[in-house]
Write a structure and sequence with these properties.
By secondary structure, this protein is an alpha/beta fold. It has a single domain, classed as Ribonuclease H-like superfamily/Ribonuclease H (Nucleotidyltransferase, domain 5, 2-Layer Sandwich), CATH 3.30.420.10. It is 40% helix and 15% strand. The protein contains seven helices and five strands. The chain has a five-stranded mixed sheet with strand order 3-2-1-4-5, sandwiched between helices. The longest helix is centred in the last third of the chain and has 24 residues. It is globular, with a radius of gyration of 17 Å. The mean pLDDT is 94.
Length: 206
């Protein structure tokens, strides 16, 4: 099924998505993207753009360049592990989408949210939630690509500081190698202390 380029063509619709929600380390990252109608239609008809998790790194990186160059507006927000621990991962994910939308250089008139829930606040436009929206709408898929590529870029930087965890390949997700490194050397300030870092482990903070 091809992506829908818009819901209302003449409305400034911001697609919103996040990346890194299930990771043990690193930020949760969200992007908000407004696509011009012609570009949205082009991306939707090409059949290349999709949920970022289904795309190769090469395709994601190429799409990131096109989206950032041709979008009407785009913005990315990272929420750090300490904030995730303080407000929980769901609230951090929603906050990241709100903050990314607030950062758009062109104000959105409507938000398309990937997922089944959202908490809005004053100053944000109306919204609608769409389950698996990154496989349904071009603007959400574009946001998925930006969130994923920007977060992966951040994790590559952190990998240079802590190479033992393999964040260059696992991006902070709970792979066997990542958890083995945690068992051997412990955690860093970039790990989420409210997450179970090892199977059977008690959560470290309330």
């Amino acid at each position: 099924m091809s992506l829908a380029p818009w819901i209302e063509k003449k409305r400034l619709e911001a697609g919103c998505d996040e990346a890194g929600r299930g990771c043990l380390a690193g930020p949760v990252t969200a992007a908000s993207v407004i696509l011009p109608p012609d570009f949205a239609l082009e991306l939707a008809s090409e059949g290349i753009l999709d949920d970022s998790k289904k795309l190769s790194k090469k395709v994601r990186d190429a799409l990131r360049i096109r989206i950032e160059n041709e979008a009407t507006a785009w913005a990315v927000c990272h929420i750090a592990p300490e904030e995730i621990d303080r407000i929980n991962i769901l609230q951090a994910s929603l906050k990241a989408m709100r903050e990314a939308t607030k950062k758009l250089r062109v104000p959105a008139e409507f938000m398309l949210i990937d997922g089944n829930r959202f908490v809005t606040e004053d100053g944000l436009p109306p919204h609608e939630c769409y389950i698996k929206g990154d496989g349904r709408f071009a603007s959400i898929a574009a946001a998925s690509v930006l969130a994923k590529t920007h977060r992966d870029e951040r994790m590559m930087t952190l990998h240079a500081q802590h190479p033992q965890y393999g964040w260059n390949t696992n991006a902070g997700y709970p792979t066997r190698a990542h958890r083995s490194a945690i068992a051997e050397t412990g955690i860093t300030d970039h790990h989420r202390k409210s997450f179970r870092q090892l199977p059977g482990q008690l959560i470290l903070i309330a």
